[in-house]
Amino acid sequence: MRHNFTQTMTLAGSVQDVDAATSTFSLKARTGDVFRVTVGETTTYQVLTNLDQIGRDRVPEPTTASPDDVRRALAKYIVSGRPLFVAGLYQLDGERERFEARTVYLLHSDPGRYLFEETHWWLAQVTQMADRILDHLFDQRRSYTIDDFAKFYRTNLNILGQPVDDDVQESAVLSRLLYDLSTAFLITGAERYFLAANAAMKYLREAFRSISHDGEYCFWAYGRRRHEEGEKGESLFFASQGPDDIGTIPLYEQIYSIAGLTQYYRITLDTEVLEDIRRTINAFQAFWWDPPAAREKGFAGTGGYYSHLDPVTMRPDTPALGDNFRRKNWNSIGDHIPAYLINLILTLEPLPQGTGRGYFDALLRTCLGILEETTSLIVEKFPDPKSSYVNERFHDDWTPDHTYRWQQNRAVVGHNLKIAWNLTRCANYFHMRAARRRAMGKVPEAAGDDDRAARCLAIARQLADRMATVGLDVIRGGIFDCVEREPSGGMPIQFAWGATKDFWQQEQGILAYLVLHGATPSDPQYLGLARECEAFWNLFFLDRERQGYYFRTTENGLPIIDGQYGMKSSHAIGYHAFELAYLAHVYTRAFVDAGREADNGFCLFFRLRKSSIQTSINVLPDFMPPGRLSIERIVANGIDVTADKRPANPDDFQIHLDGLDGERTDGTISLVVQFTAIAPTGA
Questions:
Q1: Separation of alpha carbons 590 and 680, rounded Å
Q2: How many Cβ atoms sit within 10 Å of the Cβ of residue 440?
Q3: Is the Cβ–Cβ distance between 281 and 363 less than 8 Å?
Q4: What is the tens place of the pLDDT at every residue in 260-302?
Q5: Of 184, 474, 496, 652, whose CB has the highest number of CB atoms within 10 Å?
Q6: Is residue 487 classed as helix, strand or coil in its secondary structure?
């Protein structure tokens, strides 16, 4: 029996009943546990705020008079059924226990609604973040050049946005920033973001790109560092300087070096950028890929991609690689899908109109081969019947590696949710492709795609369901970080280090549960889990004073800002918050209350370069379930062209560009596409 035990605690749940006489209410957590919460004179009530810090408390005053301020506030803010987060003090003394609320967090002034599902929420978040990043790097500039990025861009900024002693510029992180800026333009149309993205693209290609002697392959240097004052020039690091990858060429760094280029291509159709993407994928296939034919080179030939190359031999089987010798891992297999593959396939399928169809077709076939192979490997090799978590590291014969450095036999919860998210997206794609093939009379091929979709969705649901119990904090909300894959000690979760929560893993959970809600609209559990994860992110990860976000919090949602976790930008803090804002916006508009009372419209913005080989653009925002989205309106260079340019088939998202050029002085086409969600059949 414990005596005089006190602990700060956060609780998440829904109100069950209110007792005004005792100034208490009961809060039911997702586990079914019910906590009695006491409020008092020092209890404060807050309605969720965004990075813009606008006060959103519009809760009406109670209609009946209360004898004191404590019970008046209780009557005003606490109603049965309302979802809440409560931060307070838990005390235990023998048989007695007590939980006193210090802060009660409401998610909307209306008990049945959520602020993060409003039309403007994620747009406000992305503009606040993008503006502050550009302000920190470039002060008051509103136009940007390649020289601005050469002089001012830094990978590492402290929490105040100021440069630190390390003035390195990392290629993959600059690419992530290019993704951020391109994405901010894609969903807001703000000119500032486009101009910055254009300059970032030029600097990335000029400063870090390395083309092979025959022009077929593109590699990306790790980074650049300026010499000490008084010495001219810079040092270029081709091999990685990351602690797990030092002296090697890790595939995931090359993958993320084209993540920003792919998003930039998506909004511009810049064929020079596409050519760099194509060359980089050629390098993936020639140097990291391990198909059966690779046995002739002495590789395993078991499929997938090696994780690291030796920069001297350009092989994955050089002993100098140490622990990365002949290894494959989650990043070398799964990161293709979200980093560039889905966005690239969205731009290439259906094949663009114009004289470049042969060029586009060859690249699309390569991309589809990668998609099919990586999804099959994830489904077949990663799940572990002996654990709730996937295996993440492998020898090249697909034997799991449970001895790698810090990872050992441990799981990263966010990787499991990232798999659930991306397998669901791929299931949507295979369902769409099956529908197209069935319409063309290709019944056997359609059946194969339906089977692929079913297998992807089954593993996605299995992982998402498991993580809801052994990856998510079922009392406080939020998603844990690193855990033991085979817990000992009799507890359902065993933490590798602390019960902390990282920002990028919250993103994976939010997107996994939102997209699963879209794929399985008849199952209400995923929307509930998505809302729980969104609430924790928006309450505790937003750095409202500095228009950013925290890397890591405690289990209770308190930010950890010591060391690298106090950085506003670093090699570890990339594009996840912008990816989250973009896709949470799209998924919410498309899947949450679709076709009923909500406003389920949204716009995407494009700034297209005139191309001699391409006369159309594909505008589908993500791999979506068939029949769930339609084009409502098309505006080109400020003129409504919906009647002429909207495809006749509602499942067709390819817009023809002929006749639209020549209006802008820079020769580009400004295109705005408005979408509307369609309620699922039978919902």
A1: 10
A2: 10
A3: yes
A4: 999 999 999 999 999 999 999 999 999 999 999 999 999 999 9
A5: 184
A6: coil
